[in-house]
Amino acid sequence: MQRTADSNTSLRIAIQKSGRLTDKTIDLLKGIGLRFDDYKRNLLVKCRNFDVELLLIRDDDIPEYVQDGVCDLGFVGANETQEKGADVTVLRGLDYGVCRLSLAARKDGDIQSVNDFEGKTIATSYPKLTRDFFEEKDINTDVVTISGAVEIAPRLEVADAICDIVSTGNTLKANGLQELVTILESETELIQTNKKLSPGKKKLIDKFLQRMDGHQQAERSRYIMMNAPQDSVQKIKEIIPSLKSPTVMPLADNGMVAIHTVIPIDEFWVVMERLKAEGASGIVILPIESMIL
Ligand code: AMP
Predict the structure, then answer these.
(1) Is residue 3 part of a domain?
(2) Are 212 and 71 contained in the same domain?
(3) Are residues 91 and 207 in the same domain?
(4) What global pTM score does this model have?
(5) In this structure, what CATH number is given to the domain that contains residue 173?
(6) Distance of CA 65 from the midpoint of ligand 1 (Å)
(7) In a mutational test of the pocket of ligand 1, which residue from 21, 60, 150, 184 has the highest number of ligand atoms less than 8 Å from its CB?
(8) Whose CA is closest to atom 13 on ligand 1?
């Protein structure tokens, strides 16, 4: 019997079995309090404390499993979902597995810009995205699908250029290639099936998302504590990009207060310099486990 997304009350979540996205995804799931064993040895793992089971599969299979409702949710790179043209909903973009899909050609060759691709052969593991890109630009190319070691294709004279995933660009350089155009910016995404879900599953997804959002927000924030002269409180309030109004408590030393608040990590150093200039001292920064707003 074929399973549909609706035929079971446990949420089934697809994640990459072993690869670049696996550890970060497992850390994220553990970070939101999910407890499970043996994910390295089993393909289907039941969580002990949340109505979720994890299906560990190849990342390029994830978009279709989610599209078909075999899994309700999946963690996978946008590159895979878009290459498959999967009919799914992207619930969240997650800032890991960040990479781009780019066109590259020999550094010293005759392809130096997009228009030079006319009539050329391109090797790639992403034929759909490559063809879509050139069709849209009305440039004729011959796209050859290769499953691995794409960057070697120009040297083997199998292709004039490649379209491949890049993160640092070192692999391209090592193969005498230059990156010419980025056709897709990618990161890991949480995707959801578009098949009908029961109210029970929808509730589970809401709960799951609330935990994820709390965790993501906490990762990007720090709890900050400092002492400051009472007279500086107003100025300090203006400096701190706080979630809500900071907690201000009197100290035993006359005229001094303790200020506690939460700030986005990106702004910490700029804020700290300005706080010091306003007389803040004993500044302590702490990580936050989770935040429910
Ligand atoms: P893996 O099969 O383990 O190499 O994982 C591949 C997935 O990781 C890709 O589909 C991308 O979503 C992501 N990724 C991030 N950076 C890179 C990279 N430099 N090369 C290949 N994949 C990457």
Answers:
(1) no
(2) yes
(3) yes
(4) 0.88
(5) 3.40.190.10
(6) 19
(7) 21
(8) 97
Please check whether residue 210 lies inside any domain of the structure: yes
Of 51, 165, 48, residue with least CA distance to 99: 165
CB 160 within 8 A of CB 105: yes
Residue of 17, 75, 124, 165 to mutate, ligand 1, most atoms within 8 A of C-beta: 165
Ligand 1 lining (C-beta closer than 6 Å):
19-21, 59, 77, 79-80, 97, 99, 165, 167, 186
pLDDT band (50, 70, 90) for residue 42:
confident
Domains held by the chain: number: 3
On whether both 24 and 62 belong to a single domain, the answer is yes
Kindly state whether residue 257 falls inside one of the protein's structural domains.
yes
Q: pLDDT (tens digit, 9 = 90+) per residue, 1-21?
A: 455 544 567 999 999 999 999
Q: How far apart are CA 66 and CA 119, in angstroms?
A: 37
Question: Can you give the residue range of the structural domain that contains 274?
Answer: 221-287
Cα separation, 257 vs 249, in Å, equals: 5
Closest listed residue to residue 264, CA positions, set 288, 248, 281: 288
